[in-house]
Every structure is written in structure tokens, then in C-alpha cells.
Design goal:
The complex is a heterodimer.
Chain A (H helix, E strand, L loop, with lengths): L1 H15 L2 H8 L6 H9 L5 E9 L6 H17 L4 E3 L15 H15 L7 H8 L3 H28 L2 E11 L2 E9 L5 E6 L5 H6 L10 E3 L2 E4 L9 H9 L4 E6 L7 H4 L3 H8 L2 E11 L2 E3 L4 E3 L11 E4 L7 E7 L1 H10 L8 H4 L2 H6 L2 H6 L1
Parallel strand pairs in A: 1-2, 1-9, 2-3, 7-8, 8-9
Antiparallel strand pairs in A: 1-13, 3-4, 4-5, 6-7, 9-10, 9-11, 11-12
Chain B lengths: L1 E5 L3 H6 L3 H17 L4 E3 L4 H8 L6 H7 L3 H14 L2 E3 L2 E6 L2 E10 L2 E7 L5 H5 L10 E4 L2 E5 L8 H9 L4 E6 L1 E2 L4 H15 L2 E6 L3 E2 L2 E4 L3 E3 L11 E4 L6 E5 L2 H10 L8 H6 L5
Parallel strand pairs in B: 1-2, 2-3, 8-9, 9-11
Antiparallel strand pairs in B: 1-16, 4-5, 5-6, 7-8, 10-13, 11-14, 12-13, 14-15
Helix pairs in contact in B: 7-8
Classes of the chains: A alpha/beta, B alpha/beta.
Chain lengths: 370, 280
């Protein structure tokens, strides 16, 4: 029965996101001459980058969705950015094309809002039990056509505006397996790489997502880039590996399924940029979908020593809900300088680090299996 | 377990002119801790080094770190631990092993050193001083709590905390002190981060004194996973009260409950770390 639902959803999305419709919605997208200039001008000491914070808005058709994406990309280009990062779960809006979903969404959101009045409510714990099992089959069904569609859209946008674009994340289906993954495009519209989420939330695990087991590092003209996703920044290991591979920038799309608390938000990319001495660009999705409430601020973070207020923040959104493009300037050469001059970081202990994996995590897999 | 962290202001450190002044001050805090039914108390980072400085005519840190023997300091603390029935972390000190000098700390209970720890990573100034690095971390169960020590600079190295957490540490004790301008952001980059990504308790005691020409600062703070702190900020207590102590009750049952709702360590991805060759 469930395969039938998946199949029907796939067919529906294939028709709604057909190449013809996407081409139509991209029609008129012209090469942006301003964008060309930006690319020629960028320097390692003055790199303009941007992150999207946006609210989920169910769309009626693909044209609306493309228009929303294009508005952010255009703004990024106008503000002379060379890179834009979209948030995790950047596809939720597309659920709006499913007949009846708006009504269902309204019902589920209202129900959860009432439930949140309950003092014992804990979003991280409660959601896994409360997600309708049908939801995962909808996601699986829409995965392929959405992936095909967004690849075309983002490639076209990147080429038109001469920008590096990290798409945020979508569902990637490989056989029966599904992953939460993002696509990175270069200014010629070329696909630079795909990154799967490495550390899952309990909800994602419950929904059947698989974990990525590799992290690619992309060598670009302005530095080396990694693209971890949301929970990956809860783990120092991700960023330790990123630094070992030479990363200078981490692009981190998030969609935090919890009520906003600045301290909770501080557990992610901010501490990782401090301990690893790299730049962190965080994009964020917010709003309600299917009874789930997402919050979070987009921001650009750096080791505190090289930020003007000595607080590790280059720029951050003014609110955790709404639509914002957060832009900022980063200086790769300054990053290299502080790595050499830092008082408290960058030491190594060969003896302690020898066989660290085996001696430290030896039982971690068994514990997890329990 | 009721715990306390000691914090003395710069002025208070300046008023300590003789070793006797330091003993009086330490003992007065131990008495207060007993009155407050504290079971474990942590003294500031570098307290042992400060003691060495008081007992020597040498002014430069290099000579100081090599000349003195920490035993008299530790013996006195052992005596206190017998008299006051407290688990005492005497702050940190420089310790000689053969030709090497380490930055170290320990836990003393009933006249015995139950847990000993060398610092594993060095700050730039510690490298210039020629200190050596320890090779591993240990934990010890004392009065029902699994404890580990993170010595000062190691708070900035998450691999130290992670190793302790996966060894089962529930309470981390951290005598600390930082050079340079007072900077709360720097301290936030240390133990606060480690508590949140490992979900243990931590008791940090900051040194606001001086060693030779070097000035130090550090707040004394007791941390917990943020979901179980009143302001949801990860701070169980900071800022000393009239007794001069920063105090808190570490409710391990509640900590376990908190972890059951959001367990960071349950989602570690060992396959990924292996495949990417972390630390190789």
C-alpha cells in the first residue's frame, strides 16, 4: 500500500515539477553582468558571503518556488556576494503542491500549537512519536522529481548570477535508502559536489534516514569549503576532520525543530568555529509544517579574535523567524594569521592522539546498538 | 552531590603574602564548605604554583617551575582532607617527573590522592616555559560520582572532554586560569562548550592572581546540560555568595533524565570518523 502512495506522489511531483514547467519559470533569467564583475573582483581579504534565513511558505506551483529562490539569489548578487547558502529542508514549501496538504497542514499545526501548552512538552522527544508514518512515504515519493527539479533550478540560478550556491538540503533517494543532502553549485552552473548529513536527529533516524559517511572538501579559488548539515555541528569530530582536511569555511544549513533559545542555538556552529578556527556560515529554515515548529537565526561566524566585537559573530539575523539575507565579509588571510598566533589552540599531543579513535570510541557502536 | 568552587578576587590574591596566609584562607573556605554541607570543593587553577611562588625568592617562572617541590603543598591539603572530610581538588600546580615538568591537578580524599591528572595540551606561554604534556585522562568513582579532571588549557581541546565522557565521566573538575585581558567569550569557548556536547556536570575554579609577571583571570562556574538549568543557559551557578563559594547541587538523576530526552552521544558516527581517518 505504501509503495503505491510513494508511486502516486512521485508521479504527481513529476508532473508538477516537469522540465517544461521549470524551464518556463526560469525563462527570462538572464546573465547578470554585475555578477561577472563580482567574481573578477573578489580577494582573499575581502570576501562577501551570505546566508538565507527564511520562513516556510507552502507554494501552489513550481513557479512560486523558483521565484522565492530567485529573490534571495538576486539580492545576494546585488549585495555583491560571491556565495549564498540556503537552509536545511529547503523543500518543505513544495509540499503545498499536494492536493489537500494545506488543509492537513493547518490542522496538524493547530493541534501541535495546543499540545505545546502542555508543560511536559519536549519537542526533541515528542516529535518522533507524533509524526504520522505517512509523512515519510510522502517524502520518499517526492524525492526523485524534486532532486531533478532543483538541480536544474540551482544550476541555472548559479550560472545566471555567477554565484556559488549551496542549495540547502533536500531528500536524496538511492535505491531504498534516503539521505538528507545538499548540492553545491559553482558560478558556471556546474555541480561541485553533494554532501549527505552525517549525524542525524532522533526524528530523522525514526523516519528512516541514513547517515552519510564521508565529507568532501571543495577547493575553490578563495579557500577550502566543507558543507556539514545542522546536527553535524553538534559534534566537534566533524570540524576536527574538516580542519585536518584543510577547510577554511563551513557552510551549514540548519532547520532546528525546537523553540528558539539563544543558548541552545549556541551549541552548534559557533563553538565549532571557535575550537577549529574556521569560518562558519549558517542558513536557517523557520516556521510551521505538519505540526512541526522550526526556528533559528542565520549568521556568519568566525573565531572571536577576528571579529570586530570580539564575540565570534560577523553578522547575525535580527530575529529567529522571518525572511532575511544575512551578508558579511570574511578574510581568509586573517584566519591563517590567527592560526599561527593563537595562545590557546592549535597544539598537538602525539601520544594522546595516537589510536585516539580506537581507544576512545571503542564501545560507542555497541552502546548505540543497545 | 553538593559541590563548591572557590573564587578569589585579584585583591584577595594580592593580600596573600606568606604561605601561612594561603593556608588560613584555604582552611577558612574548607570550614565554610563543611558548614554548607559541601562534599566536594575545587580550588582555583595555579593555586599550587602560587604557593610555590610564596615560598621562593625566585621571580622568573622558568626557574620557579624547576626549583620547587609541590609535595609540601599536597601534604598540607591531605591533612585538611582528613580534618574536614571533603573531597578536595587543590587547584593546579607544576609537578616534576624526572627531568620533565607538568601542569597537574588531583583529587584528595581522606588523606589520599585518589585521582591525578596531567594537562595534555599546552598554551603558547606554557610551551615557552618548557612544560611537558600528559598522555591520557583518567576517571575515578568517588562517593558514587564518576569524576575526571580537565586541567586549564585542556578545556579548549574537545578531544579531551569527549574521551572523558566516553569513559563515563559524570562530573568534571577544572582548576583553570587564563592569561591576557579578561574575556568571557574565551571562557565560553572552554568548559561551557564541552559540557553541552558531552552532557556531564563541570565545576570550574578560576585563578585571578599572578605568577611572576603574568596576570591571570577566570570565573568560577558550575555547569550542567542546559536543559536542566533554571535559565536554560547551561550555568547551574556562577558568582560567589557571602561565604566566598560558588555552590550547587549536582542532581545526577536529573542529568540522566535530561539525557534520555536528548542524548548527544547516541548519534556519534564512528564509521564516518574511521573512514575520514580522524587523528591520523
Amino acid at each position: 500500500m505504501m509503495w503505491l502512495i510513494e508511486s502516486l506522489i512521485e508521479k504527481w511531483f513529476s508532473s508538477k515539477l516537469s522540465i517544461h514547467k521549470i524551464e518556463k519559470s526560469l525563462k527570462g533569467l538572464e546573465q547578470d553582468e554585475r555578477g561577472k564583475e563580482i567574481k573578477q573582483k573578489f580577494s582573499l581579504t575581502n570576501l562577501q558571503v551570505s546566508c538565507v534565513e527564511r520562513k516556510i511558505k507552502l507554494v501552489k506551483n513550481i513557479e512560486e518556488y523558483v521565484n522565492m529562490l530567485q529573490n534571495f539569489v538576486r539580492q545576494a548578487s546585488e549585495e555583491k556576494n560571491i556565495l549564498i547558502v540556503f537552509p536545511e529542508n529547503n523543500y518543505f514549501d513544495l509540499l503545498g503542491v499536494i492536493p489537500g496538504f494545506r488543509w492537513l497542514n493547518y490542522y496538524l499545526n493547530q493541534k501541535m500549537r495546543k499540545h505545546k501548552g502542555n508543560n511536559n512538552y519536549n519537542s526533541r522527544k515528542e516529535h518522533p512519536e507524533r509524526i504520522n508514518p505517512l509523512f515519510i512515504h510522502i517524502l520518499k515519493g517526492m524525492a526523485k522529481p524534486v532532486e531533478e527539479g532543483i538541480k536544474m533550478i540551482f544550476s541555472s540560478l548559479a550560472r545566471a548570477y555567477r554565484l556559488y550556491i549551496y542549495t540547502g538540503t533536500y531528500i536524496v533517494k538511492e535505491g531504498a535508502k534516503i539521505f538528507n543532502a545538499g548540492f553545491f553549485y559553482g558560478p558556471q552552473g556546474e555541480l561541485i559536489g553533494i554532501q549527505k548529513k552525517i549525524h542525524l536527529t532522533d526524528l530523522e533516524e525514526k523516519l528512516g534516514f541514513q547517515r552519510g559517511e564521508e565529507m568532501e572538501i571543495y577547493t575553490l579559488p578563495f579557500g577550502k569549503v566543507v558543507c556539514p548539515i545542522c546536527m553535524d555541528a553538534t559534534y566537534f569530530e566533524t570540524f576536527r576532520i574538516a580542519r585536518e582536511k584543510g577547510a577554511d569555511l563551513a557552510l551549514l544549513p540548519i532547520a532546528n525543530l525546537e523553540e528558539y533559545n539563544p543558548w541552545k542555538a549556541l551549541r552548534g556552529i559557533w563553538p565549532r568555529t571557535q575550537e577549529s578556527l574556521i569560518y562558519g556560515l549558517k542558513s536557517s529554515l523557520n516556521g510551521w509544517i505538519a505540526g512541526m515548529h522550526f526556528t533559528g537565526k542565520a549568521g556568519i561566524f568566525a573565531p572571536w579574535m577576528i571579529t570586530s566585537h570580539q564575540d565570534g559573530i560577523i553578522n547575525i539575523s535580527s530575529h529567529y523567524e522571518g525572511d532575511f539575507l544575512v551578508s558579511g565579509e570574511i578574510d581568509i588571510l586573517q584566519l591563517y594569521k590567527i592560526r599561527k598566533e593563537t595562545e590557546y589552540l592549535e597544539d598537538t599531543n602525539i601520544e594522546f592522539e595516537k589510536d585516539y579513535l580506537e581507544k576512545t570510541y571503542g564501545n560507542a557502536d555497541q552502546e548505540r546498538a543497545k | 552531590m553538593r559541590v563548591a568552587s572557590v573564587e578569589w578576587s585579584r585583591k584577595e590574591w594580592e593580600e596573600i603574602k606568606q604561605p601561612e596566609n594561603l593556608w588560613e584562607k584555604i582552611e577558612s573556605h574548607l570550614k565554610k564548605a563543611v558548614q554548607e554541607e559541601i562534599e566536594l570543593i575545587v580550588f582555583p587553577g595555579f593555586t599550587g604554583c602560587f604557593y610555590m611562588q610564596l615560598t621562593s625568592s625566585l621571580k622568573d617562572l622558568y626557574s620557579l617551575s624547576r626549583e620547587l617541590n609541590i609535595q609540601s603543598y599536597l601534604e598540607q591539603i591531605k591533612e585538611f582532607s582528613l580534618k574536614y572530610a571533603l573531597i578536595i581538588c587543590p587547584g593546579s600546580y607544576w609537578e616534576r617527573r624526572g627531568k620533565e615538568i607538568f601542569h597537574a591537578s588531583c583529587l584528595i580524599y581522606q588523606g589520599e590522592i585518589l585521582l591525578h591528572q596531567f594537562q595534555l595540551y599546552l598554551a603558547r606561554w606554557e610551551k615557552e616555559l618548557g612544560l611537558s604534556r600528559g598522555i591520557d585522562v583518567e576517571i575515578k568513582e568517588i562517593k558514587g560520582g564518576k569524576m575526571g579532571i580537565i586541567v586549564s588549557t585542556d578545556v579548549f581541546y574537545p578531544q579531551v572532554s569527549r574521551r572523558l565522557a566516553l569513559k563515563g565521566a559524570e562530573i568534571i573538575l577544572s582548576p583553570a586560569g587564563y592569561i591576557g585581558e579578561k574575556n568571557r567569550v574565551l571562557q565560553l569557548c572552554g568548559l561551557w562548550e564541552e559540557v553541552q556536547q558531552n552532557q556531564f556536570f563541570a565545576v570550574e575554579s578560576g585563578f585571578n592572581g599572578f605568577l611572576g609577571e603574568l596576570n591571570f583571570w577566570g570565573e568560577s562556574i558550575i555547569y550542567a546540560p542546559l536543559e536542566m538549568t533554571v535559565n536554560q543557559d547551561g550555568y547551574l551557578e556562577k558568582g560567589r555568595d557571602r561565604s566566598g563559594l560558588v555552590k550547587a547541587f549536582l542532581d545526577n538523576k536529573r542529568r540522566v533524565e535530561t539525557i534520555s530526552k536528548f542524548n548527544v552521544l547516541s548519534q556519534l558516527n564512528l564509521g564516518f570518523y574511521r573512514k575520514m581517518g580522524m587523528f591520523r
